[in-house]
Structures are given as C-alpha cells and as structure tokens.
Design brief:
Elements (H helix, E strand, L loop, with lengths): L22 E3 H12 L6 E8 L13 E6 L3 E6 L2 E5 L3 E5 L5 E6 L2 E8 L12 E4 L2 H10 L11 H15 L7 E2 H15 L15 H5 L2
Parallel strand pairs: 1-2
Antiparallel strand pairs: 2-8, 3-6, 3-8, 4-5, 4-7, 5-10, 6-9
Helix pairs in contact: 2-3
C-alpha cells in the first residue's frame, strides 16, 4: 500500500496582506491621475477618488470611455445633451470624447473605470445611467487595488473582463434631464442648496472663461 504522509493541523497558514488602495483627493489630483491613465497599456484601468461636498470639477473629456460610480454621496453630471444624477445605487457610462462636468452633493467616494474605445464594443454609444449590482460594486472595489500594469492573463485581467461583461448586462435607468430644462432647474437648486457664488456649473450655451473654469 502506498504511504500517505501526515500533515500537522497545527501548521499556521501564512496570511497574504490585501493590496493597498490609493485614493486621490479632490478634482485636481484625480484629474491628473485620470489624464495619466488615458495612456495606460491596459484596455481597462480603475481609479479611486474622494470629493468633498459642494466640489465642482472643470468640464473635460477623456480619450477613453468612463464608467463612473460613487459609493457614497451623489454626483450631478452635465454634458451638452443632458444632466444625470448618480446616486450610490447607480453608475453612469460616458462614451469616449464626451465633454462633461461633475458636481458633488455630500462626500463622494468615487470608483471609476477608463475603457479603451476598442474594448467598448457592445456597450452604450451615448451616456447611460445604470443600476449597479452588488457584484459590479465588489469588482470595482477590487479593481482599484490593482497596479496600472496588471497581469492581463491572470486573476486581475479576468476580473476586468468580467466587469465589462457585467456592465453590458446592467439595467438602464431612464432618468435624464434634457439640457433645455437645466437652466430653470439650476436656478431653483441655487436658491435651495447654496448661494450662487458657490455653484458655478458649466452652461453649454455659455462659452465664457468662468464656465470653462467650473470651480
């Protein structure tokens, strides 16, 4: 008979420390990081960031598509065609090249993906608000711990591929304010939430230095 060696049950298991997550604070720092990620040598890259309540970003666009989700707080995202309110139950898909601007209500803990245009086949070609599943939320939290040059053939690459597949299955949420309604709603928002001096949201109809700055 063959002999099976006994293994002591008292042998301690070696614990592997979870990878550290780097979160970028504020629109300026996260903007620099987002710009750098556009040139990453991976089809999908992730970033974590945190924004304080009342923060307003500059209007901008990305070469890549963006999948934007906040674990906490609410973000209002404005483009030339409409406005979306992104709560922790939702995420916003923004196709490549779409100019947009964000405003934060409450502290926003952002989890976002930047996706190469060639990897967006089968995904929306216009901005789309989506319901976020618990699986996608967990995958996002894992992805933001990956190095930029992660192993595409290993576990990290498999998670990124799964995330794209799950995003393609996420239910759309038909909630959008057409751009023509935003001018009126912005006035009421200023009166109820803050003074006009604290909110300088981009108005696509105005091409002024103030609106371009966005802060």
């Amino acid at each position: 008979m063959g002999h099976i060696s006994s293994i002591s049950c008292n042998t301690p298991r070696q614990r592997v420390a979870p990878p550290a997550m780097v979160s970028f604070s504020g629109f300026e720092a996260s903007g620099r990081r987002a710009d750098a990620l556009q040139a990453a040598q991976r089809p999908v890259v992730a970033m974590a960031a945190e924004f304080s309540s009342g923060g307003v970003g500059v209007r901008h666009s990305h070469r890549r598509a963006q999948f934007l989700h906040g674990l906490t707080g609410v973000m209002t995202v404005i483009t030339e065609t409409g406005s979306w309110t992104v709560s922790p139950q939702h995420a916003l898909w923004i196709p490549p090249g779409v100019v947009h601007q964000s405003r934060c209500w409450g502290t926003v803990q952002l989890r976002t993906l930047y996706v190469e245009p060639d990897a967006t086949i089968g995904l929306p070609t216009s901005c789309q608000l989506m319901e976020v599943s618990s699986l996608v939320r967990a995958l996002l939290n894992e992805a933001v711990t990956f190095p930029t040059e992660y192993d595409m053939d290993g576990r990290e690459g498999q998670i990124m591929n799964l995330m794209l597949a799950e995003i393609g299955r996420m239910p759309a949420v038909p909630l959008r304010a057409p751009m023509r309604r935003i001018a009126a709603s912005r006035g009421s928002a200023r009166r109820s939430c803050a003074s006009p001096a604290t909110i300088r949201i981009w108005n696509p109809g105005r091409r002024s230095a103030a609106s371009d700055d966005g802060r």
